[in-house]
Amino acid sequence: MRVAAEIISEQQRRRPLAVVVSAMSKVTDLLLETLRKAEVGDRADVELNLEMLLARHVQACDELLRETSASSHAAGMRDVELLVSEFRRIANGVLMLGERPPRSVDEAIAIGERLSSALLAHYLNATGVPAEAVNGSDVIVTDAVFGNASPQMEATRERCAERLTPLMHSGTVPVVTGFNGATADGRPTTLGRGGSDFSASILAAVLDAEELWIWTDVDGIMTADPRLVSDVAVLDEVTYAEAAELAYNGAKVLHPRTLAPLVEKHIPVWSKNSFAPHKPGTKIVSHFDEPKGARAVTSMSNVALVSMEPANSVLSGTRLMARALDALALGNVEILVFTSSSYRQSFCFLVRKHDLALALEALESNLSIELAHGYLKPIEVDENVGLLAVVGEGMRGMPGLAGRVFTAISRENVNIIAIAQGSSELTIGIIVRLDSLDRAVRAVHAECELGKLAAASVQ
């Protein structure tokens, strides 16, 4: 928070800005776990988690504000206690009901961001930067899809013009909670995966920002996961499409939903390291003179491959695919890879493991008659797989690239289970055995010389 405040202070002297904060590390997980414990009636663990939540933020408030002023410290403590009490009220309600209403969950888990916002705003004020904590539910208007809401941009623009613009023009920094919003009639919602970054991009779009800066603990978007590959390089520029594909396929960069509000307005995004602000980071833009070939390789291990096949010609394979996709869409299951064969009409698709139970439930419900009468073979699931994705706009129309990638993987004695490449040629998705995934990533990174190419582009 001190580092964030230094960055904010420096930028606030140059131009008006709005700040969006996330919860402290692991706090959202703690809040969700507490609600799960409350749902099953585990009062002892609920109380233990509430004590942990309070103690962690009291400690943060102490370390952040005790050397500023007594009034700032007291105000910070008061806000921490009030917000933890608010979460306690909701958790006790879940204990009494024995269930977790989606609206109550969204209201409860936004407490983590509200705690961060309050503490950072108090610290900024105490160090001479006028700031005000703003609840995201007061400025981001969404639909009523609790847990994964989508913004209503025009209504949000109006709210921000009323609430944020006057603060910024007066020299006050609004410190907005990420991850949460509210319906037009005030029901609390959350924005799902990548929620705080998504909040920032929504506000950047409606405020017509010059730039959006995302501060993390890494130097920018890299050519591969540095835990797997030793010679990774930071990419100086990527396109919106490349960043979205990398995030979709497992890289810890901006979620595709985060980028969506920015594309139409061509607002550039910087991904920078808050602990090394002097480093240039990665700039995400609409387009630039893209080098030929791949730009990065990423992977996902927490996935499952679902395979389906008609038992005979009575059931049309095309109709089966349509029914399966419809079921997955209704279940809000994200498909990472989809591929099919021509003659047997079998097909397979990859989902995240946390979506697997939901996917199977949706499929078995929608295709119960076909399964019961044997028109459809039993659905097969393989959890011992991983996804490798090679990404780059410069791969379009480049002969031989796919062959080089497959050859590099085969040299490591890695079997390829399935392959998928869309018509955009932006991404090649490859499914391999889980124990071969890391070797395959290293092989592709070396074959495409991604570390060297990225380093050369920086120079």
Report what the structure shows:
There is one protein chain. The protein has 16 helices and 18 strands. By secondary structure, it is α/β, with parallel strands linked by helices. The longest helix is centred in the first third of the chain and has 28 residues, at 70-97. The radius of gyration is 24 Å and the shape is globular.
Question: Which descriptors apply to this entry?
Answer:
four-stranded mixed sheet, globular, 459 residues, 18 strands, alpha/beta, disordered C terminus, four-stranded antiparallel sheet
Tally of DSSP β-strands: 18
In the sheet with the most strands, the strands line up as 7-9-10-8
Strand count, sense and barrel status of the largest sheet are:
4 strands, mixed
- Low-pLDDT parts are 454-459
Query: What class do helices, strands and sheet pairing give?
Result: alpha/beta
- In DSSP terms (H or I, runs of 4 or more residues), the helix count works out at 16
Secondary structure blueprint with pairings:
Blueprint: H1 2-12, E1 19-21, H2 27-39, H3 43-65, H4 70-97, H5 102-109, H6 111-126, E2 131-134, E3 141-142, H7 153-169, E4 173-177, E5 180-183, E6 188-190, H8 195-206, E7 212-216, E8 237-239, H9 240-248, H10 256-263, E9 269-273, E10 282-285, E11 296-300, E12 303-308, H11 317-330, E13 337-340, E14 347-352, H12 353-366, H13 368-372, E15 380-382, E16 385-391, H14 401-411, E17 416-421, E18 427-433, H15 437-447, H16 450-458
Parallel strand pairs: 1-4, 2-4, 3-5, 7-9, 8-10
Antiparallel strand pairs: 5-6, 9-10, 11-16, 12-14, 12-15, 13-14, 16-18, 17-18
Helix pairs in contact: 2-3, 2-4, 3-4, 3-6, 4-5, 4-6, 8-10, 9-10, 11-12, 14-15
